[in-house]
Amino acid sequence: MPLPRDGDGHGSHTASTAAGNKVTGVTIDGSVFSNGTATGMAPGAKVAAYKVCWTGKPGINPGCYNSDSVAAINAAVADGVDVINYSIGGSSESDVLDPVAQAFRGASNAGVYVANSAGNSGPGASTLDHPAPWVTTVAASTHRQAFAAVELGNGARYVGASTTPSLTTATPFITSLSAKLASASEASAKLCAAGTLDPAKVSGKVVQCDRGVVDRIEKSFEVKRAGGVGMVMTNTSTNSINGDYHPIPSVHVDAPARQPILDYIASAGSAATAKIVPLTAQEQATAPQVPEIAAFSSRGPSTTTEGDILKPDIAAPGVDVLAAVAPPFHFGRDWDLISGTSMASPHIAGIGALMKAKHPSWLPSEIKSALMTAAGDTVSSANDPFAQGAGQVSPNPAADPGLVYPTTPNEYRQYMVSLGIRFSPPFDTLTPVSASNLNQASIAIGKLAGVETVTRRVKNVGSSTATYSAAVNVPGFDAVVTPSSLTLEPGASGAFEVEFTRTDAALGSWAIGSLTWTGAGHTVRSPVALQPVAVSSPDEVHGDASASGSKQFDVVPGFTGELTSTVDGLVGVTPEAGSVTTGEFDIAAPVVDADTKKYTVTVPADASAARFSLDAVDDTADLDLFVYKGGDLVDLSASGAADEQVTMLSPSAGTYDVYVNGFATPGGATSYGLANFVVPAASAGNATITPNPAPVTVGQPTTLTASWSGLDPAKRWFGVIRFADAEAVTFFSVG
Predict the structure, then answer these.
(1) With a cut of 70, which residues of the chain have pLDDT below it?
(2) How many angstroms from the chain centroid is the CA of residue 447?
(3) Strand pairing of 206-210 and 167-175?
(4) Which residue of 182, 293, 305, 725 is surrounded by the most CB atoms within 10 Å?
C-alpha cells in the first residue's frame, strides 16, 4: 500500500499553518527569513492528518477521489477531531448535495467546525467552489507588502512582488526566448522550464521569464542553473503577483508591464540592462495596500445556489505564506512561501480551533458567525462580498462577538428539504427553509422580484443583558428591520425580519450593502447582496422521462399586470457513449487520448441556448468538461463530481469543441453519456406554459404549469422558457 506521506509539501504547509508549533531560527536557502520565528494559528492543537490525494506509483491512478475524501472526513469525525481543514477544491462549483459536501454536513452536525478553500480560479465571477452553508469558505488575501521595482536601462520602472535581496547594479537584461538551448522548444524556453536555457547566453545576466505552467520557483532555479544573476517574471494576463523566495534576486510584475519590458529589450539589444531595487517613497505609497484579495482568489456569486447563499464567507492570508514544506519537493527547503486559497483556509481552521477551545459549547455555525461579523474590510474589495466575503478575519474581536447567528443541524436539513430532499423519520416532518432564509451571518437573494422579506435569529453570547439596534443600508433598496431593537439576556435568542423593497436598483445587477447590530460595545456586521429582477423564476424545471406530462413551478413578478411566456424547443438528443481513463488535462493545449475525448458541436446563428451535459456511469468518479471555440476556452465544469454540465444562453455562432477528461476514474476507466443540445430560438410545438398570459401581482408567487407531449422517452429533451420584458429564463428539461 502506498505510504500516506506528503507528496509535494502542500499538506505540510497547510497543517503547520493551522497548528504548527512555535519555531525559531527559520531560514530559507540558509538565510534567516523575516525575524526567523514561525508559528501556526493554534500551536497548542494536535494535528490528525488524513491523506486523500495521491500522485500514485505505476498501476495506481493519481488524484483526489471523492470516496477517499468522504472516508477521511468520516474517520476524522469518528476520531473526535474538533476542526477540519480541507484545502482541496475544483475549478468550478460543486453542488451542496455533492458527497464531500454532505460528509461535511455530517461533520458539522457532530460539532466539527469545517474550513474550505474557495479556489484559485479568480478573478472572474462565479469561479468559487464549496458553496455549502455548513462550511466556512475562505478567500485568499495579502498580509504584508513585499515589493521591488525592476528599473530598465532607459529609466522606466515597474513595480512587482519580491521578497529577495536587491540587484542594484545595472546588469545585462535578456529574454529567456533569446537564450534558449537549440534543443529546447520556444514555448518551454519562454516559461524558463528546466533544462531550456543556454549557460553561454545567460551567464551573468538578468532573464525575463513568462509566468505559467512551470512552477514560479522552478523558473528562477533554471535561470540560476544557467548562470543568471536575476529574474524578472512577467504575467501574460492579469493575475496575482507573488513574492516567492527565489534563489536569485527576482521580481514578479503583472501583465501591463510585460510588453514595455519586451519592447525595451528588443530596442536596446545587447545594451539592455536591468536592476531590481527597493521602491521609492512614492512607489511605496501607491503600491497595493494590505489586506487585499488576491487576483487568483475565486469569487462568487454562487451559481448552484442561485445566488441565495453568499460565498465566500471570509478572507484570510493566502499570499506568500511562510510555513513548513516537504524538502524533496521544495529544492531541499524545510520552509517556503506558497500562495493560494489552500493557504488561507488553514488560517481560519486554526483560528476556529482557538475559538472552539474558548467556547467549547458553541455550534460550528456560531464560530463561523463570530468570525464573519467581527471581520474587517479589505482595501479595494471592501464593497465586494463576492471577493472578500464578510472581510478579513480579525480573531480577537471574534472571540467576544456579542451576537451570533446559530444554525442548527435541523435547519440545514430544512434547507435540504427545500431542495427536494426527503429525510427518514424523525426528520420526515421538517418544513422547507429557502437558502435566503437560512439563519446565516450574511444575506443574499439572487432573484429579488420587487419586494422580499427574510428572517434571521441572533443569540446573545455576552455575559450580561444587552440591547442592540439594527441599521441596514443597501443602495437602491428600502430596507426595514422588524423589530429594529432587541434586548436579550445572556444566552437568549431573538428573531427579526428584514423587508427589502426595490426603489431604483438596476435590474440584473447586484446591490451590495450591510446589516449591522450595534450594542453593548459590539458591532455585529453582516454583508448583504441583492439582485433585483423583473421575474424571479427557478433556474430549471425538470420532468421525468415520458412521452407527455407536466410540471408545476412558481414565479415571482417584480410588477403587477400580465406575465406572458414562450418556450424555445424542446430539442431531443440521444447521449453519445464514451469512456475515459485518469489523466491530466492541459487547459492551454488539450490533447485527445485515453483520458480525454473530444466532440465537435456546431451552433448556428441566433441559437437560444446550447447545453453540454455529461452523465458518468460511476458516480464515484470525477470527470470534467471543457468547452472551446476557435481554440479559446469559453466555459468549463470541473467540480469534484462525476457529472458535469455547461449551459450557454444565446451562444455565439460557430464550431465548439467539447472535451471530456477523466480527472479520477476508479477501476481504470469510466463510461459516460454526453448529450449535446443546441436549441433554436423557436418553439418545436411540443411544450407549453399555462396560464399564458398569467395575471400577476408584484412580489406575490404565481404558479405556472410546464407541459410536454409527443416526446421520445428514450431521448433527453431540453428547451428554454422565456418571459416577456424580462431577462430571466428558466431552462426546461425532460428525461
Answers:
(1) 1-3, 34, 56-62
(2) 21
(3) parallel
(4) 293
